[in-house]
Task: inverse folding
């Protein structure tokens, strides 16, 4: 098949679609990705990219075509809106010319913003190619949950746009089963909605814990609670800091945060103001391939989201990475994310935005034996292999794309 993938984000930005595209290409499909210039999550264009591109690259058999955009910049809702809209407009204007050949199918990856669906519908019409829209975030609910938009009129307009996009697709894929009812409520027939969870790259696998690996990253000795990923408003980082403050006198417990995002400056300042430097350690983003060896040096891995109705329907993609590495998980989550951890028997769940509950759980976990922790980690890995394994889900996606039909309107 000649496949086109539409995503505002792609390599060298760290998103699961990078691995999906390369996986499809390795199976013999011709894969082209139409994306933007990389600037997530820091807000500035990555080194080596600028006004003059590069606008065409090759990554392990995947052709990358880029459209210009306004970078996200600092933590500003106005700048973020310009980032979303500029990419949608430039992709609409340039996309049909950047992809001149025949297309058998289009896969749209939507972790936010929904505006990626605008050029998808346009290119679908021009190329007469069916579209599978892979929903990672629900809009407009994500906008209101993160506080990015509070104006009811604007949220209603985004809701209408979302309906128009969903209804213009030939299949709608959802990363969480809890998304199905929401997508159906937007007017999509249920027979066109398919549950397709995220997997994890093949390098996410259990690693031996070795002092050499630990010392290379200068991790503190003691009981290590590790959080890795985007440091944004959705991740409920105030709860983490408050829990760390509750346990500040337990110097053997160390909170290790790895990542970047809009909340990183706030985190750094809170650690300094509260004098938590001895137990809270903020590390820079690292290549994804480095994470399994770091996970191996942790005792438990932490996933968290704010207490918002929409987040209760979401499975944070880090859960799959954590499970794949065979590590026990503390889930400061409500809804689907917590359900997955409970069903796997892979860790502990506490309500979102509950610092005292999180602190109690971390303290209790720190008193378990290595054998007890290892048993939970093995259950996590087994659950991943059964439900989220990469080749299994790639085969499901490949079958969906090859059997998808263009629905005339």
Result:
């Amino acid at each position: 098949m000649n496949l086109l993938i539409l995503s505002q984000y792609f390599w060298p930005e760290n998103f699961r679609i990078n691995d999906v595209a390369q996986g499809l290409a390795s199976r013999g499909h011709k894969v082209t990705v139409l994306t933007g210039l990389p600037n997530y999550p820091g807000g500035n264009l990555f080194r080596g990219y600028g006004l003059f591109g590069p606008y065409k690259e090759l990554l392990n058999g995947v052709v990358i075509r880029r459209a210009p955009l306004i970078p996200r910049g600092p933590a500003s809702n106005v700048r973020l809106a310009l980032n979303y809209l500029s990419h949608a407009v430039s992709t609409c204007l340039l996309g049909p010319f950047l992809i001149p050949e025949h297309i058998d199918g289009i896969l749209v990856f939507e972790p936010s913003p929904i505006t990626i669906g605008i050029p998808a519908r346009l290119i679908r019409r021009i190329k007469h190619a069916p579209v599978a829209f892979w929903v990672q975030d629900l809009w407009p609910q994500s906008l209101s949950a993160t506080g990015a938009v509070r104006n009811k009129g604007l949220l209603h307009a985004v809701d209408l746009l979302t309906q128009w996009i969903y209804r213009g697709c030939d299949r709608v894929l959802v990363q969480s089963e809890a998304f199905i009812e929401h997508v159906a409520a937007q007017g999509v027939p249920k027979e066109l909605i398919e549950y397709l969870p995220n997997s994890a790259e093949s390098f996410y696998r259990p690693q031996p814990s070795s002092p050499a690996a630990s010392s290379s990253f200068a991790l503190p000795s003691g009981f290590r609670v590790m959080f890795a990923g985007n440091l944004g408003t959705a991740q409920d980082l105030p709860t983490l800091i408050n829990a760390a403050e509750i346990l500040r006198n337990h110097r053997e417990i160390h909170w290790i945060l790895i990542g970047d995002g809009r909340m990183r400056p706030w985190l750094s300042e809170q650690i300094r103001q509260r004098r938590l430097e001895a137990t809270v350690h903020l590390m820079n983003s690292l290549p994804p391939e480095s994470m399994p060896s770091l996970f191996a040096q942790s005792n438990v891995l932490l996933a968290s989201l704010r207490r918002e109705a929409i987040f209760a329907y979401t499975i944070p993609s880090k859960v799959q990475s954590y499970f794949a590495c065979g590590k026990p998980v503390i889930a400061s989550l409500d809804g689907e994310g917590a359900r997955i951890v409970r069903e796997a028997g892979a860790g502990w769940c506490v309500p979102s935005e509950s610092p005292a509950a999180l602190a109690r759980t971390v303290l209790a976990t720190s008193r378990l034996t290595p054998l007890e922790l290892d048993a939970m980690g093995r259950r996590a890995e087994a659950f991943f292999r059964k439900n989220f394994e990469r080749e299994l889900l790639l085969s499901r996606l490949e079958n969906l794309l090859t059997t998808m039909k263009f629905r005339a309107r």
Summary: The chain has a mean pLDDT of 94.
